[in-house]
Amino acid sequence: MTLGFGLLLLWTFVGHRRGPVPDSGAGLAHYRELLTAAGAAWALAWTWIFGAERAALAFSPAEVAFLLPAPIRRRSLIQFKLLHAQGRILGNTLLWTLLLSANSFGAHAWMRAVAAWVLLSTLSLHRLGASFVRHSLWEHGAAGFRRRIPTLIVLAGVASLVIAIAAQDLPALVQASRGGGLALLAALNSASERPLPALLLFPFRVLVRPIVAHDISSWARALGPALLVLLAHFVWVLRSDTAFEEAAAEESFRRASAAMGGTAAALPAPGAQLSGPPFLLAATGWPATAIYWKNLIAAARARRIRNTVLAAGGTAALLAFLSIRRTGPLPSIIGALAATWAALSLVMGPQWVRNDLRTDLARLELLRSYPLRGAAIVAAETAAAATVLTAVQVMLIVFAYSATLGDPGMELTLAGRTALLAGAVVVLPFVNYAGLLLQNGAALLYPAWVRIGPGRSTGVEGLGQNMLGMLAYAVALLVMLLVPGGAAVGVWLVLRPIAAGAAVVAAIGAGVGLLAVESWLLVRPLGRVFERIDITAAGISRD
Amino acid sequence: MIEVLALTKLYGGFEAVRDLTFTVADGEVLGVVGPNGAGKTTTIRTIAGIIAPTSGTIRVSGYDIQTESVAAKSGLAFLPDEPHLFEYLTVEEHLLFVGRLYGVADTRERIGPLLAELELDAKRRALPGELSRGMKQKLAIACGLLHRPTALLFDEPLTGLDPVGIRRMKETITRRASEGAAVLLSSHLLHLVEEICTRVLVMQRGHLIALGTVTEIVDARPELAGLSLENLFLTLVGGHAT
After folding, report:
1. HSE of A530 in the Cβ direction (CA atoms, 13 Å)?
2. Which residues of B touch A366 (CB under 8 A)?
3. Which residues of A touch B50 (CB under 8 A)?
4. What is the pTM (predicted TM-score) of this model?
């Protein structure tokens, strides 16, 4: 969500530098306001639909033990947590002040800083307030519904407006997008000036006006209303004191559970409809399949992954539709981005997808008690993460493929692109498996250097650790791919004069075959390390 | 049967367990007692194959836990004081998972009666986060018993249980022993040990202080005659008997 909002902001900045502008600087500033406001609206819509970021709610175990039972008013606790959240907001403010161009946004850094702080603080408060409403409805049903009637009336009004606007303006926008990005922008702008969209976007425009203001006087004029919106959010959140305590306690519990070795922080709320297992687990067969099955369930039940898959399915269908209808350059841009992300995920993906030993080593005591060889456990743990990562990559490639379905200007033919897609589906599982084996091997051999348990290393020190880890991983993966890659190229060169199509198939077969052998050779010693690792000395036992 | 021969576990220069030898016969319940840091948990974890011994041999049902670990663990159940559950698996999925790990062919048939016995059938589709502490403990027990183990290891089995849970846990332990399983349990609760254990192993600072029935221990140390297990224990470990 934040990424989407950020991308929108960056796009407005990049668009200003590159493209021909239909109007003077003032006209573009108008688009910037519209797009930034739309970005903020999208970010908050995501919060309401998919759940709120509740980092600000979590208490540490010591805070739960001392603060919640202490004779402190709930309102004071909220103020404490809001003050605590300011650390993160100020960091982001600094980042955005540096990222936003003085040409496109506030001329002075301090203007941009103040405006970014107001915007980010308001968004943070809104997310918090949204999480209270969602929690209240979830926990208290009809009673929670009655308590939240004013908020729900506003929400229903906004939803009705969105539906009415979509019904009215979507055909014209689709038509306009055929004329390119700028035409779409102009159509969006004119649509946004009609009464209903203007009403809907008004609070967001008020909020972002200081950040797009160019001079001090317009900035000063815009700041007052934006501060009022911030104040309104502050009062709204402060009045949610009861919901705060309940939600905070729940969030703290979920985080504590996650720290104990599970993935509760990413799980659906208690009582929520759970997704079913990925496949029916037979009672007999290779025992390590149970670990593979368990880890796929862990990934499928993580809220973020579920949301991503839902959003991804819709995006792929929309991209294919837009591309076939040739509605403008948007599908091609998104397709290129998807392909880039798919390529980047070969290196970055294994650090993000962690439903493997890196999470389960926090439960080493339990894993060790199972009647399984270490190699079987390492193999199954790695396979689950490789499956998830491959699914994400294939999804991105399908995006790119869908987005170029109706593009006649591509250098590679549709048949070539289809072959590439099929090849990727065959090769990626092997490459991902090898890469994730390296990551899991690092966790076994250097547990102090790898984050064990759910979540990723964060903060400045975590960033440095992640970068070093990624660099070392990229080098190790390259070394591992050298022989299979060389063999694949060799086979292709030899067979190409005889039969080009068969040469590609044989080259892929040779490459993935050798990679599979390398992985197999690596699994065995890693299994022995798993069996011998001293959980107390390694510092990864939770007992 | 559980056989422990000359078990030693060192952490650097620290002796967690030194030269420990004992056996738990089929149908027997052996209680391991000792003050904090005596080496009880280390002993149980080593028998479970979770940590490797520095030296010595451990056999479960005749299989060496180090060299034949898969066969040895197949007949073993380890139930730690804190139930280790996966937060993302439901109650039923935990049992399916464990059933596959241990190759229990009739897992699906066994799940219903087992959950009913442990009063968990209403929570079949609940995640551990929705269970009380006692229910989590019951689920851990269900997972431990699903494959009909012939050797059971309990580490502080009554931790966090309510009176009803305590009663049921005692019944579970004695029933498994009466069905022929070798049971080893570690506890600070001497009344539990006195009530359900057939023999007692007293440890202190990694060493075996006494092993046998209370009668056998008193026979070997006549000055302990007439003492309750609590006073006997305090005298053995150097505390003050009353």
Report:
1. 32
2. 84
3. 364-365, 368-369, 535
4. 0.68
